[in-house]
Amino acid sequence: MKKYIKQIATLALIVAFASCSADDDVEMVTSVGGNVAPQTTSISRLDNNYNLPLKVYSKEGVTATKVEIYLNTAGSGELFKLGAKVSDGTITGSDVTFNTSTLGSFDTFPTTATPSTLTGKTGSFSLLILSTYSDGTTTTQPYTLTVAKGIVWKQYNEDGSTSTTSGSGVSSVLYNDHTSKAIIKYAVVNKSTTVITSVVGEWAKNNSTVFAPLPGTFAKTTQDIDVAAIPYSTYGGLVAGDAITYRFTVTAGTQTDVISTKITFANQEFDADKSGSISNDPNSSKFSFLTGLSYDNTKDAEIAFVVPFGIKVDGTTPLTLVASTLNYDTADLFMANTAYNAGAKVTQLTSLSTGDVVLYKVTRKVDFGTADEPDIQDVDYYGILKVTDKVSGDTSQKLIFSYKEGVLRTN
Questions:
Q1: Cα torsion through 145, 149, 155, 161, rounded to 10
Q2: How far is CA 284 from each of CA 91, 306, 310, 372, rounded to the nearest angstrom?
């Protein structure tokens, strides 16, 4: 009972400061009969038929005889101002409820646009709880009820937990790469008594406003979707650079809410340009595409200089060369793969000139494990090289080139 009296006194002070003179404060604290407090401050926009709970705290022997909910139309500098009546509360002992359907539409909140319009789907109701007690006293309590989204994006944290995010966390996936996961995770937000009718998944391509159904069924609670695993035939086929908008609509009775995200199926490009050189000088006659360094011995070398103005495969790393007419600046990994497969594979090319382009494929061993548990796997890298200059002296020959590599993911 002591904690109830403390809560009553706190509320009484709020009311007293707003509506009474200083001389009336003490009398208000000691004479108020009780306090009716909300038990939740937020719902989702799906909860428009929810019995919102309030709790009565009162002096011994005093009960709440009437609880009314009004709009609070207080302006700047005002604590409250009685507006239109929303509902009468249903009193059952110390419990009070009123149904959120009496609040009206959940589609008329102010938007953040300039100028603002009353078309927002989330926002808040500024309310007043006007309570009358059996001892004849009354209290008026301001109450802000927030209406949040009914379906939200979730994102996995490093520890495996999830958090609510403004976006799906996935903006692009590599075209034709079905090995990597691109998980979008949604969660439906509703009170336990709100019955969810359905969640529908849809897609649209390249900014189209026409959506088509995604295959499968969608959970009414939460679900993980790996967009990289969805067959491209779902969309009538894809090419690199296409963007798909995924839309999920949740329905509860007559209420709906929507989230969407756009994911680009990005082209598979080479990594950044690097530069290198190789010559007939014994100190720089060998080169490694992996390290970007010249060598005077076989350590880490992948190619070696060969007279006149040529390169040959060197070292123990499997590597083959293909002379090509591809445009070094615009070629991507798909083009390089196609041209390499169609070209004549050799281990040596000579008489190279400025502007010549060479493709290569090198298989390197990569450790995907840890220091305690190594996991060595063979990985194929496609590379493209362009001769940018050749320097000739009386007895010296040198090739200067740009090159870039990448791993084509197609599984």
A1: 40
A2: 91, 12, 14, 37
What is the structure's pLDDT at 23? 40
Model pLDDT for residues 274-305, shown as the tens digit of each residue: 999 999 999 999 999 999 999 887 677 999 99
pLDDT at 13: 41
* DSSP code string of 225-260: EEGGGS-GGGGT---TT-EEEEEEEEEETTEEEEEE
Where are the extended beta strands (E) located within 137-284? 138-148, 151-156, 162-165, 172-174, 183-188, 198-205, 212-213, 222-226, 243-252, 255-266, 274-279
* Residue-level pLDDT at 257: 98
Q: Which two tokens stand for residue 43?
A: 């719902």
Long-range contact set of residues 301-308: C-beta below 8 Å, sequence gap at least 24: 302/362, 303/278, 304/278, 305/278, 305/279, 305/280, 305/397, 305/399, 306/348, 306/350, 307/280, 307/350, 307/397, 308/350, 308/351, 308/397
Q: Kindly report whether the peptide bond that precedes residue 308 is cis, defined as omega within 30 degrees of 0.
A: yes
Other CB atoms within 10 Å distance of the CB of residue 14:
16
**In this predicted structure, what is the pLDDT of residue 73?**
95
Amino acid of residue 213: P
User: Given this model, what pLDDT does residue 170 score?
Assistant: 93
Q: 301 by DSSP, 3-state: which?
A: coil
Instruction: Examine the pLDDT at 200 and tell me if it is beyond 90.
Output: yes
Q: How far apart are CA 78 and CA 272, in angstroms?
A: 61
Over residues 193-204, mean pLDDT: 98
pLDDT at 15: 45
Q: Is the peptide bond before 142 cis (omega within 30 degrees of 0)?
A: no
